[in-house]
Amino acid sequence: MSKASIIGAYNTEFGVFVKKDPATGLMTDTKTYYDLLVEAGRGAITDADVAPEDIDAVYVGSCSPASFLNQEHVAPLAAEIHPSLRFKPMTRTECACASSTVALYDAIYAVEAGRCSNVLVIGVEKMNLLPTPQMTHVLACCSHWPSEGSRGMSFPMLFAEYAKGYQAKHKIGDEDFEKMLFTVGALGYKNGAENPLAHAKKGPVTVEALKALCQPDERGKSKNMMIAKPLRLHDCSLVSDGAAALVVTSTERARKHRKPAAEIAGIGHSVERLPIGVRPNMHELQAGKDAARKAYKEAGITAKDVDFAEVHDCFTINQILSTEALGLSQDGRAGYDYMEGRFTREDKVAVNLSGGLKSKGHPVGATGASMHALVYKQLVGEPIGVKARKADVGVAFNVGGSAVTNCVTVMRRLN
Amino acid sequence: MSKASIIGAYNTEFGVFVKKDPATGLMTDTKTYYDLLVEAGRGAITDADVAPEDIDAVYVGSCSPASFLNQEHVAPLAAEIHPSLRFKPMTRTECACASSTVALYDAIYAVEAGRCSNVLVIGVEKMNLLPTPQMTHVLACCSHWPSEGSRGMSFPMLFAEYAKGYQAKHKIGDEDFEKMLFTVGALGYKNGAENPLAHAKKGPVTVEALKALCQPDERGKSKNMMIAKPLRLHDCSLVSDGAAALVVTSTERARKHRKPAAEIAGIGHSVERLPIGVRPNMHELQAGKDAARKAYKEAGITAKDVDFAEVHDCFTINQILSTEALGLSQDGRAGYDYMEGRFTREDKVAVNLSGGLKSKGHPVGATGASMHALVYKQLVGEPIGVKARKADVGVAFNVGGSAVTNCVTVMRRLN
Asked: How many domains does the structure of chain B reveal?
């Protein structure tokens, strides 16, 4: 079986692409969902330098476009990218915040099966048309609705359960634990400040600054308020609009192609049961570890071979759990490792050079494609933002829901 | 490349699985979405006689579970089918009413790529928890929202455009056209009456009966009222709850397996642009014809080789258009052919022996898997309902949206 490779990628700017109509108070688009999808798709095709007529299929990963903007059945929108895409197969995948990594995996299968030569993968989401309570409701639908969402459990609350489980398991004092989380958050902001496409380019880049923001102001309000104990506002990723896209082909074809390529050396896709209440180990990503094991095995590597990783810091605690699931830290050690300065751009292994979901932004359905786009761009020597010290092997670890859908991809520069 | 085959299938009963709480007036489940998904998945695994631990991946096709019942991220629910499915890859696909055929296609790719040995495909939808106006809104999200849904265009209105386009193109008189549509509707009810799983087992089985129902009663109400001219109530399919599932493996493995199998001999997946306003030919399924051409080519057959077909009669007009797209009738002739008694169980080619979406029911995300389950069951000699006279080659033609996603599958009994 010939493996698949990425030969082109594009990431739109991430941000808030709506404005409030002063007359009606309603949100209107400054860049629509439709615009974002087409911009990303065209961008990736251009970057890959393939003719649009040579794209054999399109996979679109998107989480909740019907809930956010009344548009279901979004895959056919890819026909607007270029007239020659009309009549091609177009499929939407949805696995919460991992929607576009599973789109990529299906594209890989289509290539590996010999069904397609070149496949376009797009991840897209537009979240900011809705006010916060409705947006929170839409995301809560990605939890197990009967036992979680319908009972008022939001995603910060679900990941707070992991935070509490992790802290208890490893007997971490409150002060240390807060410092760990802030260290991770500050690192994201620091890296994101150099990412020209990031949603939050200016964030508090030190633990001290994040701590200072916890103090209530004269009205009793804190700029780093508690959202779901122990998670504060700056432990949460951003609500963003954006899209990203990739062009996938066979490694055999990629080798002959005029553009640099990165091989999908290994993938691991492991799915946990949906309700957190049934999971025995709320201090680790069991399915995430399984996904990493599968991906490393297929790629023939160990954690020691990883040069850099983009991991799913929907909440700071998940960056810590993901770092352990990837085997970059020992269990119970990741928080301390971050505090000791590991995983920065200077380290042997860098994590979230893009700024991560915390700073780069988190348009949920776009995130998986974006992570892969960023890893690809590092591997081919065209980093978006901070450059990796060494970029032979990169990993993307995208998570959907409350650590339910776990996707680990190992990519390798193709020489 | 080894082809893929179906080795097991299951179809739940289709119907309305809710009841109104007399106290609150709210709808409550008599069989939940979660129940339906698990019942279908377990049923297909049992029918295929494979061990649950030998299922390597699950694809779940579902259209709008977040809108219907606040549950997005539904693929992981498949972990509830059996403990050994925990940590397996699970992916949801959505392409409106073709959501579970694209799930099947992705499963086929995974098998053909050698990534998986056995894949479980589930289609599921629960539509009846919402009152009609909200349900109509949810479905309208599958149209092009900015130009259609947001302007009050419902799906009956969109297919009425095809009906008017077809009637005008082929210069069919009103009386003949009405009779064509009623003939198709009556045939669906007649076949569905013998399908033990059908939603509407008792419907008007003659053109005369459908015509009689058009007469207004003493209150001016007609039981076959006009919904979107020229489409009446009995030209529309049903709003159903239900699920269906399939087990897919390689043909090589299927040949050695102890259960009868049907090979996926050819697939065609062609996607039209989303807004109907941009399509030049509103009298034919251009992308549907393209899908049929691809599927026949891959299977090495022509329309003459087809013994029976399940086609997507979301509206009676679409059964006529689909019959032509599959080449079973010449362009402009399908309506006349149906009126002349073609495509019944006695004919050389039978269409919708199950009763079709009109009588069997149309739980949108389940429909594709259901069509394939029915064709498979015919091919292996275990028909659900009316038996095909000859069942060597069967076709499923599943459509998503306003004839946007077009999926044609040719299946062949594996001896």
From this structure: 1
